Automatic annotation (TrEMBL):
All residue ranges annotated as the Oxidoreductase molybdopterin-binding domain in the record: 240-368
Record-linked Pfam families: Oxidored_molyb
Entry keyword annotation includes Membrane: yes
PANTHER family on file: BLL0505 PROTEIN, PROTEIN-METHIONINE-SULFOXIDE REDUCTASE
Protein name, UniProt field: Secreted protein
Length: 370
């Protein structure tokens, strides 16, 4: 018996239809677009030269949408690939130069999409089984993915219009597998289930119905801990600790008792991390602008230094807008109790809208730059 490779016409299941593929592509394009746009915002929040201070939930919302749209994209991408994979068996394999470019861009798109979704999920779990730096690589491949998506949409626009313009209709009698409507409904159910199962990490009122929420469970002092003092190499903070505030032309050191003696402010603020989880706590501490004024330092761009000696985020930068903001605190207490060592004792930064990795713990220095 002679074996032959299957041909496109051999796949007759209703799901392998341009009407199904077009609708899945539209849903996938929306989720990819949301993920890409909010990813750019996330990158700007960590590395940009400007970032808003209001609304206080801005980063919590944008990063939550970023992670959750990536999660929802997983079942949509799998379903989309299932609907179109018979095209791999179309003959001839390459019909023209343009067709070759289109197929090449599709390969790049699928590879980049899987890379982004897989590495994003690993990041949410704080697992990095690779040798490359996550943030710059994830950011660079996002541009590759969105560029390939643009090329793919341009090449397939006539088919997309055709598929979206035609009613789903009924499947032919005797057709195997789910109907077109059934396949789309099953995919939609899987996407919604993935959303609900994980959304509690960033949407507090969904926490009790989100069995796969990560890092949203309340930790010590009522707040999760991403990086412990042990992991950061901060074994203890002795009585000789001092906060050094420096600026062009001056330096001042304060011990913790002096910080406690300064006017205190209490504010309820969220903390949101790049992994997608967020939580709200009540923080008490010294307004950074007041602290600078008390020691005679000007306001401006402030570099924050931690007792942590290694790691990409052992220092952070407070942009001038945040330095002037009355909700930017050098926090000494959380939820009514003194900061524990894991939460950043003797003091930590907490400010509205800043990514969690820049809410520096174990602060030992503030350097005002012109």
């Amino acid at each position: 018996m002679r074996l032959r490779l299957p041909r496109e016409r051999d796949f007759t299941a209703p799901a392998h239809d341009v009407r199904v593929a077009a609708r899945l592509g539209l849903a996938l394009g929306v989720t990819f677009g949301l993920c890409f746009a909010t990813g750019l915002l996330s990158h700007a929040g960590q590395h940009g030269s400007w970032w808003p201070t209001r609304p206080v939930d801005f980063y919590r919302i944008t990063q939550g949408v970023h992670v959750l749209s990536g999660i929802v994209a997983v079942p949509l991408l799998l379903a989309k690939l299932w609907s179109v994979y018979p095209l791999l068996f179309a003959r001839p394999v390459v019909r023209s130069v343009w067709h070759a470019l289109e197929r090449g861009s599709l390969f790049v798109l699928v590879a980049a999409a899987f890379f982004q979704l897989a590495t994003g999920l690993f990041n949410s779990a704080q697992s990095y089984p690779w040798l490359f730096p996550f943030v710059p690589t994830h950011y660079a491949v996002a541009w590759v993915a969105i560029g390939a998506l643009g090329i793919h949409i341009a090449a397939k626009l006539p088919k997309i219009r055709d598929g979206l313009g035609r009613a789903l209709g009924r499947s032919a009698p005797g057709a195997g597998g789910l109907s077109r409507r059934g396949f789309l409904a099953t995919t939609g159910f899987a996407a919604v289930a993935a959303l609900v199962a994980t959304a509690g990490a960033t949407v507090p009122w969904l926490y009790r119905v989100s069995p796969l929420s990560w890092r949203a469970a309340r930790g010590p002092q009522g707040l999760p801990i991403n990086r412990t003092a042990t992991a950061a190499g901060v074994a203890r903070v002795g009585p000789d600790w001092r906060l050094t505030v420096s600026w062009p032309g001056g330096t001042r050191q304060l011990d913790r008792a002096e910080l406690v003696a300064l006017p205190q402010r209490t504010a309820t603020l969220p903390i949101a991390c790049v992994e997608g989880w967020s939580a709200t706590a009540t923080w008490t501490g010294v307004v950074v602008a007041d602290l600078l004024g008390a020691v005679g330092a000007p306001t401006g761009r402030v570099e924050v230094e931690s007792l942590e000696r290694t790691g990409a985020y052992r220092t952070s930068v407070l942009l001038p807008g945040h330095v002037r903001d009355r909700l930017t605190l050098l926090a000494l207490r959380i939820n009514g109790t003194e900061l524990s060592l894991d939460h950043g004792y003797p003091c930590r930064i907490i400010a509205a809208t800043r990514p969690g990795v820049t809410q520096t713990k174990w602060v030992t220095g503030l350097r005002v730059r012109p």
